[in-house]
Give the backbone structure.
Amino acid sequence: MMNLLLTFGEHPGWFFVVATLLPLLSFVLILLASALWCAGRAYRNTPGGAALFNLCGGEERGRTAAFVATGAIALAFVFSLVGCIRFSAQQHGFETAIKQHGKALHQIAAKIKETSGEAKEQLEAKARTEEEKLEDQEKRWADARKTNWQGHFDWLRISPKGIVDADSGTVLQLGFKIDSLSAIMFVMVTFIATLIHLFSIGYMSDELQPEVEDHQVHTAHGHLHRRGRFGRFFMYLSLFCFSMLNLVLADNLFQVFLSWELVGVCSYLLIGFYNERQSASNAANKAFITNRIGDAGFILGMLILWTHVGTFNMEELFQRVRAPLNDTHGAVEGVAGRIVRGNLDANNTTKAGQRFTIANDGSDVLLFPHRPSAHYHAIVPRVSDNPKPDQHGSMPYWMLVAAGLGIFLGCVGKSAQFPLQVWLPDAMEGPTPVSALIHAATMVAAGVYLVGRCYPLLTYDALLVIAYTGGITLFVAATIAVVMTDIKKVLAYSTVSQLGYMMLSLGVGGWVAGLFHLVTHAFFKALLFLGSGSVIHGCHHEQEMTKMGGLFPKMKITALTMLAGVLAICGIPLFTGWYSKDAILAQAFGFIYVHPQHLLLFLLPLATAGITAFYMSRMWLMTFTGKPRDEHVFDRAHESPWPMTVPLIVLGVCSVGIAWGWPVWDAEASFLEANVHHAQYPAILADFGHIDYSISEHHGEYWIAAKDEAQNERVFAYRNHHLAGNIAFVLVAIGIVFAGAIYWKRVLDPAEAKEQFPRLHAFLMDKWRFDRLYSVIFVRPCLTVGHWFAAFDLRAIDGVIHAVARSAMWVSKWDGLFDHYIIDGAVNLVGNTIYGMGARLRSVQTGFLRSYVLFLVLAAAGIFLALAYFVRMAMAG
Amino acid sequence: MSENDMLWMSAVVFIPAVFALLLIFVPRGKEDIMRWLSLAGTGLTLGVSIGAFILFYNNVIDFNRGNDPEARQRMSLEFRQSEYDGGGISAPTNSGDWISNYPWIDRFNIKYYLGADGISMPLVLLTTLLSFLAMIASWKIDKFVRGYCMLFLLLETGMLGTFLALDFFLFYIFWELMLLPMYFLIGVWGGPRREYAAIKFFLYTLLGSVFILIALLAFYFTDVRDFAGPRTKAEAVAAAKSDGRIVTENQVEIHSFDLVVLQRVGKAALQKLNDQRVTTSFAAIQAKENLGKLKRDKKATAEDLHNAEAKYQAALNDSGLKKRLEQAFFQPWFQYTMFLFLLIGFAIKVPVFPFHTWLPDAHVEAPTPISMILAGVLLKMGGYGIIRIAYPICPWAGQQLAYFVALFGVINIVYGAFAAMAQSDFKKLVAYSSVSHMGYVLLGIAVWSSPEHAQYWSWGMNGAMFQMIAHGITSAGMFFLVGVIYDRAHHRRLDNFRGLYEPMPLYGGISAIIFFAAMGLPGMCGFVGEFMVVLSTWNYNRIFAVLAALTVVITAAYILWTLQRVFMGENPQYKNYSDVSVREIVCILPLLILSVALGVLPGYLLLNWMEPSVTGLVDTLARFTP
């Protein structure tokens, strides 16, 4: 026990590993118990069977499973929290020290310039000791990262030629690497998951009954009755939590892909939880298959990297694709941290490789060694064709773009971005807690997370595609949300839209803003979904807002907490959304300032901020205010029990304050944002900012130099955060007022608008007709091709074979005598003794056997001819 | 020569046959005894094969020495055979080299020659396991039980012999031995169209066999004396002299069915046809090894080195060798023809488009346990033949035609997946999914590469081997599961099921896991093989990689659609079906465990000890590619 604790002391990264494995343990336990329970159920009248049955939870197994799963995830939360605190403390300690030394060094350097003579020498000596201390701190921090917060092992390894280490592309590893982003993600995921587990205990309590009535499935004898599935629900949740945490934990793309598929399958299982409903099972299939389209892209992206770079480890990939920040001769200035393009001179090839000349529009990308030696040339004129990890190499630029886009396609699928956004709204068929956890807070955000993680692999062209994809998605989804009347569908489209914001932000260089929004969004969107779950539960599974209204007095806690969520997503000042969404808008503003041709990338999110405010207010107002629209629903409505309201309150508090810093009213002071900022890659500053080399060599942290502000998106964004935020706020206010006028005060009638623009309304209700389009261009052609192939087998291939068989039969008839006396006799003998078959069947059989024997004879003749030939050849040889 | 290893390997091969004979003595009507006896036979074979595997593992694999090339070399049959053939092994028993070579028909130099390496061992284990489980699954068969059991056991002997034989002639005998029982098992115990399916299977396979037979004989007519070791040579000389065929030693011609020797000849052909110097004659190999030893030896004098070098050069420049390299075997037309013959012969078994139409029929008509064997083991014999025989013996043609082999692999993958989606018969769907999955095997084998990129080919070949094992497990599982529901519903129409999850939750859960494993979900065995193959493909051909990657969508579509049609929804008609019985659980549980375990720990359970052999094969072939 002591040893175990010591292990944690020495390798605190294991906190996160344990946090990941706990839900897996819970999943395995519940799975085994359910399997044994099922096996024992049939024999529960025998003593042994009864014992097994009771051991596995008996009739109470559902409740036990819920406690195991909730306990596991709560414990995982504790582990994550401890790990996160330890990581932040260590990081803070080292970085403060490094900053102090760097500052001191800077001051000394300034003094040295002013002084001369003996004083200068003294100062220089002082500078050297200071520098040594700085380097020592940096080295210790690097070592600590490596030993404490990283680890991996070989999962599969092949060893061509017995050479193991130097070859690239020989090993698939599993491992973990913690930085402040993954630490925050861990805490966020486990925290929200714990609350949602708790919420589910209340929400899913119907499933505890031995027999559940499903009102949405109609059979010949009324509604469907089935066994409760409380335990199964929590089993799936546990598997999901494991997969999601594993995804965050991973230090390599391969492991991300493993988890990627696993979260997909959990999502599939949970969407199809009410599998008797046709709509649910269709939605589950749709979700998984749509995601697999993205995954195919992901695989291709991985393949390109694997073939050209030879590793899946993200750190190694980044080091190979991006130029190092410094080298022995200071030669990297201008390209440090960037993707270096150039041209290969095919006429200048030696055994060492080809000549590489740097050019901004070059057709190739330079690959750098990931383990540089002490004396290090970052930029070399020669690159190897088949580079080892410690050599310079190159790959075609378009391949790197394709790899980035391939990985992004995976993210498009998972994060429901245009054009693969169609699955997420349908996924609302799953139980509401699932919608909150998987289809709002965590899994769908994984796509954004991965784009953020893989940022250094993305070229400028790929980023632009990402930005536009995000821009289109956020607008399309918001417009659809305006006309939806199902409370969960509104939230689903709002999720798609918000994910679009994050993608756009990453595309325009707002790495911190995008991931910051990911975290804040997780809290308030989980809150909104759980709130809608509470409403649905309170209204006895009524989801249509057209039947709600005036529910505020009946469910005050739900209404108030949801209001906090609505204000947060609208971006009202001091609510979490305000900090993160305004940061995104500011970043987009900075981007279009430098690249005015991409004006749309600012206008779309800006306009959508207003639309968002409108439809979110509409949702809240339609549900909770005004006169009840359906008396029946209203009369039976009630507030939810405590396991459901407690998570709502906790999440409500988080939605208000999770992004606060000091001072609270400073949009730039968010503590959470600062923490995300720690994980930012230098590559982002290289692409969208400016690295001051004179400082960066010594500081470990990279500062934005304000040399050339006009060309610097980040600096501009920083300066104009409030401007962008204020413009957006005006639009948000208009949106809210508009919604209030229509749905609260009801001075305007939405039906009139509907009548005025019937085609637009129908178009939006039809979700921009994506489903129909895909059915025509993908689904039906696939089925048709399948039928063609199957028919080809039956008609063409088998047709030829039958023709051959028939001709053989014909030939065999001709040789009747031989058949009659010898073959039939033999076959009859065999037939009678071994397997007395019916006379009719036997005649069929013999017919074929005849041709078989004929075939054999012909074959033998052929063989003898061939033999004779080869004998001659051999003799001649 | 090692009696101990021979005993183990022969026992694995012949125990089923012995039990088939024992069945004769069971009195008529005692059908349960027959079943138990057959089960004991397959069980004993399984036990012996596991025992053999443990010994093999301990003797041949030395992981304590890490990735030491010498330790890895022991995994190659060629190394162990040349050790034996060069007279390196003096102790006659228990040498632990896991090859055993006995003269059988001296006149034609046919040998009783068995051997195991990382390529054959996993397939042997798969065969014994699946045979055991299929025997359990056969319990409900009550028509001609004695005949069924005897044929079944004979079939097992045939399959195991095929995987362990290293003499081409012996291989061919086992290959044919397995054919006949299969024909009867489908034709007598099958479904309504059993005769048609059986004949189709038989004729298709026989066609393949004829091609293989021609290749086998053609190889025999090559004089391979430069590639056989001293021991084989001495034996041949003695035999020829006693017959009075030759007078002096130099006149001897050696014709051999020895697969390992033929592989060496194949390598020489590869070198010669790639315009390289032929360095793979036995004398040259030995001279080079001596030279290497001397170079490492600090005591060796310059003169020793010089002599050794001269000897090596002499071995390379041997005029007899040069003359014999003009034989038909070393001509392009011969290589092309024989490679195609072998490829077609084995491809029919895989099965490769357009030779695959026997498979859906045979599967649909065969009884459940036979479907398990058919999909689980028989298809693998095709892949095994390509890896063990077609590629190593005709490598030059393999290199030239790799593109087409890979192309057919991709066609299989795509075609099988689409065709599976169109099926409405549960069993036929699973059969077409086999066609699709075996395409990965062909693709993985075919992604030939230059020595600098050998790691990619190695992923492909290893992936192909892994895929064979994984597919053996999942497809046998799927066929068994289809059988389970067929026993209850007495039909297999996918559109008529629905809602089976509610009455049969355990069955539903097991099915979901096995089907997800077949779909290639990470953490399960199907994923590993597919992923390894796809990893290797981009380097070879981008279009193929894109097609193979996109097929995962179609695979997901047909598998999920199947699960939806069978398990989801509700159907009062099946409300009272009983869940899986204990016998059924016993039968499916090992497959269930393996399909998850192999997905979680593919390295420890399989790849680490399979890989040295497979990678060794890739290395030897890639090395001589320009």
Chain A touches chain B through 90 residues (CB under 8 Å). Residues 691-711, 836-847 of chain A have pLDDT under 50 and may be disordered. The beta strands of chain A are 150-157, 171-177, 211-219, 222-227, 341-350, 353-358, 364-367, 382-383, 393-396.
